[in-house]
Amino acid sequence: MPLAKRIIPCLDVDQGRVVKGTRFINLRDAGDPVQVAARYDREGADEIAFLDITASSDNRDTIVHVVREVAEQVFIPLTVGGGIRTLEDISRLLNAGADKVSINTTAVNNPDFIREASQHFGNQCIVVAIDAKQVESEPDSPRKWEIFTHGGRTPTGVDAVVWARKMEQSGAGELLVTSMDRDGTKNGFDLDLMKTITSQTGIPSIASGGVGNLEHLVEGVVEGGADAVLAASIFHYGEYTVAEAKQYMARQGIEIRL
Amino acid sequence: MQSRRIVVVDLGTGNLRSVTKAVNAVSPNSEVRVSAEPSVIADADQMILPGQGAIGTWLKQLKPGSELRQAVMSALDEKPVLGICLGLQALYRYSSENSGQKGFGLISGTVRHFSEAGDEFDQKPDQGMRKVPHMGWNRVKQTNAHPLWNSISDGERFYFVHSYYVDSQDSDQVSGQTEYGITFTSAAARGNLFAVQFHPEKSQHAGLTLLKNFTRWNGSC
Q1: Which DSSP string do the residues of A100-133 spell out, in sequence order?
Q2: Hey, CA dihedral for B198, A252, A188, B124, is it positive or negative?
């Protein structure tokens, strides 16, 4: 199939700086978002994701400025998530130069919000972020995952796969699926979780959480069925460049934009 | 080179800032304005017609008989125009989106949802389900030579995001094709009109080259 699988470096942004933690805690500074985004663009990233993890809403303007500045020099799709609560929040980010917004907590608190947002802005720009964690299931039955909100702090009791299908019906254009069990561990994606979601939904899905080497990216596509793979720390700390990742995936026979 | 006035028509949807910034980046001498003012559209040398989201909402801004619609229609008639995404789809006679919408009818064919494409689009067992929207970087085969393809390789990848596609009737008006289960028109051209389904403003080098070609285009083939 000629459509290429995408590699998306993700920048967790806290008060205007790129940071990265393990299992959503222990944050480390990883640079200026505009410079980091420009570097990924030069290396051939297919898209860039920003996740605003700033806890206080006072600093929300910062992410709008970051997007505005990045959009002046980076001409690939930009996805922005974190703290989006209203149609006005979406509008501000799109006007600043974002192409898509990713929504998690607000979708769970108010499922109609995804319908309203996709009707208003088009489903092409509405990404639903699913933070999923494995929960106990009956012995000998398939694994189960539950979704969490508020940056992984609040359990919801909602099954991740049921939720993914519901969000597709509500008008989500894409799903960003993060395994909280794997996030920051470098042990690879939760491939069962990805495969379960990608085989039961008809919209594109991004695999996220756990990438520690380039083979993990390949697994996300080949075994997990993901349309795009997202990674943060392997790129931030210079272990691999985006270009190396793309060449590696292409050598494994995956359709990639080189 | 003399400064050219380029209007980016603002019909209230999509990320117009990216289009503007991308044109600024490739043609610093051009004067780019985002506007829905009929006089600004009339005064411009060239028009970019971008659009994302639902075509019904977008076309609603061009009320029949309004000055804005007249300004856009006369620009489509005489100025070099670049249509992007909905700006391509609107050039056709009819779109099945939003319970059916009438387009400008300047290019022969219709606009349909991928799910209306029929058996050809169905999944192949070894490839998994084909997802809609068609989202990401796909190849564009240049089926007709055009000044806007200058310095762009045949088969180059551009960034797409759409659930509706155009089904052209006249192959002379097809300038580029893309495969996604079916082969669809990803670039159409007729006289002073050139329109693309992909987003050149989000397609890095290839997209910037196309925009640069547009800023240098006088509207003839």
Answers
A1: EEEESHHHHH-THHHHHHHHHH-GGGEEEEEEEE
A2: positive
> Quick one: A186 exposed, middle or buried, by C-beta within 10 A (0-12, 13-18, 19+)?
middle
Under 8 Å between Cβ of A43 and A242: yes
Q: Which of A94, A98, A257 sits opposite B137 (nearest CB)?
A: A257
- The answer to whether B41 and B9 are in contact (CB under 8 A) is yes
∠ CA(B102), CA(B106), CA(B108), 5° rounding?
Answer: 85
pLDDT tens figures, B105-153: 999 999 999 988 876 666 554 455 689 999 999 999 999 999 999 999 9
Instruction: Give domain B5-215's CATH number out of 3.40.50.300, 3.40.50.880, 1.10.150.170, 3.40.640.10.
Output: 3.40.50.880
Q: Count CB-CB contacts under 10 A for residue A142.
A: 9
Q: Give the separation between CA B42 and CA B58, rounded to whole angstroms.
A: 20
Tokens of B165: 């596609």
pLDDT digits (tens, 9 = 90+) for B199-208: 999 999 999 9
pTM of the complete model:
0.94
What ipTM did this prediction achieve? Answer: 0.93
Cβ atoms A133, A145 nearer than 8 A:
yes
Burial of B145 (0-12, 13-18, 19+ CB in 10 A): exposed
Q: What is the 3-state secondary structure (H, E, C) of B59-92?
A: HHCCCCCCHHHHHHHHHHHHCCEEEEEHHHHCCE
Beta carbons of B132 and A95 less than 8 Å apart: no
- What does the alpha-carbon distance between residue A54 and residue A49 come to, in Å, rounded to a whole number? 15
> Under DSSP, is residue B118 helix (H, G, I), strand (E, B) or coil?
coil
Is residue A238 less than 8 Å (CB to CB) from chain B? no
**A116 contacts: CB under 8 Å, gap ≥ 6:** A87
Sheet strands (E) in chain A: 6-14, 17-22, 25-31, 48-52, 78-81, 100-103, 126-135, 144-149, 154-159, 174-179, 205-208, 228-231
Q: Searching chain A, which residue's CA lies closest to the CA of residue B55?
A: A122
Q: Which residues of B does the annotation mark as catalytic?
A: 85, 199, 201
Which of A99, A174, A199 is the closest to B202 by Cβ? A99
pLDDT of residue B147: 98
Domain ranges of chain B: 5-215
